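Order emerges. For instance:

***
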Amino acid sequence: MSKTLFRTRIKFCGMTRAGDVRLASELGVDAIGFVFAEDSPRRLQPEEARAMRNAMEPLVDAVALFRDNAPDEVRAVIKQVRPSLLQFHGAEDDAFCRSFGLPYIKGIPMVGLDPAQRAGHATQLHLRYPGAAAFLFDGHAQGERGGTGRTFDWSQIPTGLGKPFVLAGGMKPDNVFDAIHATLPWGVDVASGIESAPGIKDGDKMRRFVEEVRRADCHPD
């Protein structure tokens, strides 16, 4: 698909301050990610995320991110935060991800894949996660947490997915233009690339990131 036919969606993830959420909304970001994975430095409690949810502008999606959380934890977040989308980064299977009655994105680690895993990757993903609304390709290995700021070889993104995909892993203002041109993703996801410290967003980096995405969308082929 030509990039002139659609705009790239933007998700800012790992928000921990209401002011950052408000600025992201004002900048026109499409989605705000709140992290509930236990081992993340950006982890929130549901009550904290609920307060920041109230700082979001209309027409911005709230995304709740989990990594092998217990079902009761997921349900507590859904009740308090009211996300419109769930994102899973652990060993969760399709039945688990679908059981909460909300659309979900499945995070896929892209570091350390052997040739056997790369071959037929799109088919494998469809078989394992038929209910996924989209896939998110991230720059970490199986069993590791995301949000580390590492990139991966974009040429390893499987073709023929038949579903939208989001590009993550080391996204930042300095490389997102090239990333969009190289991969034509449905959306891009950034956390550490717009931070001064884990969970603490940098306003200038946030603005620059959005500007670079829009520049890529408007750039001629």
